[in-house]
Amino acid sequence: MNSPDPIDPSDLIVRGHRVVTPEGEISASIHIRDGRIVRLAPFAAVGSDDVLILEAGKNVVMPGIVDTHVHINEPGRTDWEGFETATRAAAAGGVTTLVDMPLNSVPATTTRAAFAEKLRAAEGKCHVDVGLWGGIVPGNAHDPAEISGLIADGVLGFKAFLVPSGVDEFPGVGEAELRPAMTELARHGAVLLVHAELPGPIEAASGVWNGAGPAELRQYDRWLRSRPAAAEVEAFLLVSRLVRETGCRVHIVHLATSEVLPLLRAARAEGLPITAETCPHYLTFCAEEIEDGATAFKCAPPIRGRAERDALWRALAAREIDLVATDHSPSPPDLKAIGTGDFRAAWGGIASLQVTLPAVWTGARERGFSISDLATWMCAAPARLAGIEDRKGSIAPGQDADLVIWDPEERRTIDPAALHHRHKLTPYAGRELYGMIRSTLLRGKTVYDGDAFLDRPIGRPLHGQGR
């Protein structure tokens, strides 16, 4: 608890017996003024009678989730997802900060002009705060002025694919492009997020589709075998070598295989600045349970076996994997080949933004993790990755008053009709999960409360170190 400040009648006080702070769960009153947390006080210290008090009751009060891996797709593919629908789903799921990936929108966020266009597209539509990643592609990897310009404009970091991304506007890069780009990023202290699969092992495994007819194209096992773990391993070896050479800070997105973990441990023991994330779908599902034709489960890297899932949970426990982010990547149902169940043709992406908290919590509680662990993986660590930990990711004085109030013991069955994503198709449909969101506060304002939203979006753009 910090020393008391005078209480202003305009303050909001949120109080509860399960307030999740960096020191763990405590009983406390959170004093909020002008959208920021000004102090934590004992539960009973509420001050003047005319101060507005929000009682959390038996519910948990946790920092708003920071999701650093979201594909919003606007402008250009707003029929897939857009700022208004994505941020509504975020607010309903207890997510108060999103960082948008640079691809799937048209134009991709790989130039200063595209960055400005993305900001214009988001204006007045966001129910939560939104930051932007820039992209590294062959067109800008050798252009220090474009990279430094994007940093000056306020991107939070950069994303690169080492394999084809699935959209023409965002080509993958190889060593020839990575080396100069990483050298420039290291000069600025900027982070590079990497889709870490290399094409070689995938090309070598492409024979699994040879001669496949309609029935074979529906087989999940063929999709799994077509994206072998070796693609992730070889990509990590390449990236870690370039980190050693350039000093660039790198984050591995959506880690799906335990085969990378020994390499990650060795790189960190060497002092290389490499972090990693995994996703709710890798922690929730396993290949043995996915039915043929169930293309709602298709993503890349693929959801692997039960043993891999369990190893990812152990890596979270050991702090070898730093954080959990959704990789929310929806598309219209026809692109998921729902009619045919063709895994080779289906778009690879999973819609999960609104259910990320209950999905991760359900698996975590089964394995004995605490809600404080959840707050580390989904609030504090993502905020550090994005460089916004001075304002997001924890309940502490000086932080934005971004809070999610939720009941960890209430179970619900996921009904796609209740989701606020633009498209309702999700592999979580019909799954029973623990965790019911009661309210979401953004900078002290209740933006979601029992399926009701604040009547006007108040989300703001987040700018990085350049602004």
Structure description:
- With about 475 residues, this protein is an alpha/beta fold.
- The protein contains 13 helices and 19 strands.
- It has helices at about 85-90, 110-120, 145-155, 175-190, 200-205, 215, 220-225, 230-245, 260-270, 280-285, 305-315, 355-365, 370-385, and strands at about 10-20, 25-35, 35-40, 50-55, 60-65, 65-70, 95-100, 130, 135, 160, 190-195, 250, 275-280, 325, 405-415, 430-440, 445-450, 450-455, 460.
- The chain has a six-stranded parallel sheet. It has a five-stranded antiparallel sheet with strand order 5-15-16-17-18, covered by helices on one side. A four-stranded mixed sheet has the order 3-2-1-4.
- Helix 3 packs across helix 4 (about 175-190) and helix 4 packs across helix 8 (about 230-245).
- The chain is globular.
- The relative contact order is 0.17.
- The mean pLDDT is about 95.
What's this entry about, in short?
Helices cover 28% and strands 22% of the residues.
Walk me through the topology.
Elements: E1 12-21, E2 24-33, E3 36-41, E4 52-55, E5 60-63, E6 65-70, H1 83-92, E7 95-100, H2 112-122, E8 129-132, E9 134-135, H3 144-153, E10 158-161, H4 175-188, E11 191-195, H5 199-204, H6 214-217, H7 220-226, H8 229-246, E12 249-252, H9 261-269, E13 274-278, H10 280-284, H11 306-317, E14 323-324, H12 356-366, H13 371-386, E15 403-413, E16 432-442, E17 445-449, E18 452-453, E19 461-462
Parallel strand pairs: 1-4, 6-7, 7-8, 8-19, 9-10, 10-11, 11-12, 12-13, 13-14
Antiparallel strand pairs: 1-2, 2-3, 5-15, 15-16, 16-17, 17-18
Helix pairs in contact: 3-4, 4-8
